[in-house]
C-alpha cells in the first residue's frame, strides 16, 4: 500500500498554526432542537463550549474535521469555562435532554477539567435534565473520567467513523482500532452510560459506492455494541484535507440518496440508525439536485424523530445517482463531473 | 508494442492486430472494479491487465504522480488537476512510468482527450461519456449537444462516437496534426487552452520534432517548434560584421528564396555592387525574423499562416524581442526596410535599437516600382560599406547556421573547410552538407564521427550488418540526450557505422522491442 497520509496532514497543520481570535468567555454556539428521548419527542438544549480542542487534532487531525477552527490552542481557563456555562444555562433550563459538545473530547481531563465537568453535571441534574449527551475519543472512555458525584444519565458519543482499518488509516487518518472500540463500548455500558456511534458516509478517497458499503458494514459491525448509530455524511469544513480535495474536484459531497440507501439497509438492525446531515442540501454538505434536497431532508428529519419512513421518495435525479453509484468505483476517486446531479442543465437545445 | 508515430509527448503505438494507442476502454466490457479497498481492479486492452490500487491517502499534487502496476500506469484526477500542475506532472510521466507501461487517465471528458494524448496519455475510458449519456446528452466530435429528438440507444450511439473521436486523435498523430486537433479543442475550452499554454516549454524540451506543416494562426505563437526557433535565434550570428540589414516580407512559398517574390528581390539587388554585404532577413508571423541562412530550418520552411496584413500588439512585441536577439547594433551598420505591411513597425523597432534605417515606403514590395526603389536605395546605402567577398560570406553563413543547429557542439563544423554558397551548395568539408530533409546541415559519415567525439548523441547498436534503418530491438545503450527528429550517430563495436534521424526518445529505444529507432541517412 502507498505510504500514509503525511503530505495532507502537513497541509491541515499549516492552517492550524494561524492564530485564532475567539472570545474566551462565550460558547461557540447554543440552540434548541427536537430529539427523541425514551420514545417521545422532546426539546433538547444543545451547547458547544469553547475549549482547547481535540488532542488528536493538535497532533495530526482527521481529514474531514474542521472543529479545530473553533478551539483556542493555548486552552481556556476554568474561570472562562464557568463564564461560558453561565451564558448557556438559559438554553438548558426546562429541557429534559442536553447535548454538551466541545470541539474535542468532553471527558478528556486535560481539555475539560474534571472539577468543572463535575460541577456542571450536578448543575444540570439540579435543573431537572434527565439525559446528557457528550462526545469523546475512545481513549478517554475510562470510568474515572466520568465518575461524577451527581449527574443525569450519561450518553457518550464516540466517533467510530468506520470499522474498516484501511478507511480509518488511509482515508480518515484516525488512530482508532476496532477491538479497542468494542472494549470501550463495554466499559461505558458497564458503568451506566449509553453509547452512540458516529459513522462517516463518504470520507475522502472513497467512491460513492465504496462509501455506502463501508457505512452499512460499519453499522452492522457496531450495532451489537452500541445503543444508537448516527450516520454522518461528510461535509466540507474550513481548512481541512477534504476541503482541499473538494477544491481540487477530487471528491464531491455524498448524495442524499446515499444517506437514504444506508438508512434503508440498516432498518433491520437492533438499534436505531438515523442521520441528521450537517450542511445538508448545500454544495458543502450531502445534497441531490436542487429540486429534491428539501424534500429528502424533511423525510430524514421525520425518520430521525420516528414520525415517518423513507419509503416512496423519488426524483428525476435518482436514476442518475443509481447510474453513478454503479460506475463510481471505476472512477478511482470520490469525484463526479460538475453539474451531473442536475443533469448538466443550462444551454438551449433544439 | 511498437511505436509507429509520435507528436509532442503523444505516441501512436501498435499493440496488436487492429489495436493502437491512443485507445479507449469501455467500462461495460473492459473494466472491472476492485473487490475491496485492499485489492485492485483490471483493465482489458487486448489482454487483461491488473490496475494499480487507488491512491488512498495520497496528496495528488505530490510526486510520484502516477500509480503503477506491472503494465499500467494510472494518472488519477487528470480531469480536474490544476492546468499548470498537470503539465508539471506530464513532464514526469515517462520517468515514472517508463516507456513500456501504458498510461491510463480514468474518467476524463472527450474534449480533454486530445491535449492529454499530446502530453503522453495512451488509454482513455468512457466513464464520463456514460454519465452524460444517462442525462440525455449526445456526443458529437468531442462536444456535448442536447437534442429533442430521442435517439434509440443513446448509450451505444455515444460509445460509437467516442470510438470515432479517439480514432481521430490517433489519425492526427499519424499525420502530424495532433497539435491542430488540440488547438481546435482548446479554442473555446479554457482548461485545455491553459494546459496547452503551460505545456509549451515541456514540448520544446521533450517533444518529438515532427516535420509536419504548421498551418498557423495567431494561436500558434505558442507552438513549441516556433518558440524553440525563436529562442535559438540567440545562438545565431549574421555572416559578417558591418553588413547592411535588409528586412523583406515573408512569402507563401517556403523556403522563401524559392518564391517568385524573393527571386525578384534577389535579381534586382544582385546588380548592385557589393550586394553580398546585404543581409536578408524576412519578417513573418508567428516566427518573427528568419535570416536567409535559416530558411531551411524547421519550422521556417514548414508553416502556413492566414495572412491578414495587420499586426497584433503581441506580434509586435514578439518582433521586438526577436530583433533584439539579432543584436543589430553589434552586427549591422545600417538597415533597409522593404517589408510592405510591416514596414512601419519594423522601421520603428530598428530605430529603437539605435541603427540608421531607411524605409522604402513601398506598399507592394515586389512590384516593378517597388523593386526599382529598393535597388536605388540599396545602391546608395552600400556606397560606403566595406566590401565583403564570397568566401568570407560563405564562412559566415555556415557559422551562423551551424551554431543555430548544433549550439555548443557546432565547433567541428565551424572550423572545417567551408565551400560553396547558400542555399544548396554550402558544405562543411566532408562533414556536412545542406539537406532540406534534415532542415539545415545534414551530417555525413565523417561528420558523424566528428560529432560523436564532440559530445553529440550516440546510439550503441548490436554488432550486426546494419542495412537500412536501425530498429529498437537492435539498440543496446545510448549516450547523450535528444528529442525525436534530432540527428544521432550509430556506433557498433565502438565504431561509427551510420548517422541518421532519431525516431524514438533515448529511453524508449531501450524499452521497446519493435519499431524504427533511427532512420539511417548514411551507412559506413
The CATH architecture name of chain A reads: Alpha-Beta Barrel
- CATH secondary-structure class of the largest domain in chain B: Alpha Beta
Quick check: average pLDDT of chain A?
A: 91
The rounded distance between the terminal residues' Cα atoms of chain A is 50 Å
Which strand order do you get reading across the main beta sheet of chain B? 26-30-29-28-25-27
C-alpha Rg of chain B (nearest Å): 26 Å
CATH superfamily of the largest domain in chain B: Queuine tRNA-ribosyltransferase-like
- Total beta strands of chain A: 8
Residues in helices of chain B, as a percent range? 25-40%
Number of helices of chain B: 19
Share of residues in strands of chain B: 15-25%
Helix-strand makeup class of chain A: alpha/beta
CATH topology of the largest domain in chain B: TIM Barrel
| Multimeric status of the protein | heterodimer
Low-confidence stretches of chain B: none
Q: How would you explain this protein's 3D organization?
A:
The complex is a heterodimer of chains A (350) and B (524). Chain A has helices spanning 6-16, 55-59, 78-92, 114-127, 165-172, 178-190, 208-222, 241-247, 256-265, 293-304, 318-328, and strands at 29-37, 40-49, 97-102, 131-136, 153-161, 194-201, 228-233, 272-274. Chain A has one domain (6-342): Aldolase class I (TIM Barrel, Alpha-Beta Barrel), CATH 3.20.20. Chain A is of the alpha/beta class and 350 residues long. In chain A, a hairpin with a 2-residue loop joins strand 1 (29-37) and strand 2 (40-49). The model of chain A is unreliable at 1-5 (pLDDT under 50). Chain B contains 19 helices and 30 strands. The model of chain B has no long low-confidence stretch (mean pLDDT 91). Chain B has 3 domains: 2-208, Queuine tRNA-ribosyltransferase-like (TIM Barrel, Alpha-Beta Barrel); 227-382, Uracil-DNA glycosylase-like (Rossmann fold, 3-Layer(aba) Sandwich), CATH 3.40.50; 409-523, Archaeosine Trna-guanine Transglycosylase, Chain: A, domain 4. Chain B is of the alpha/beta class. Helix content of chain B is 33%, strand content 24%.
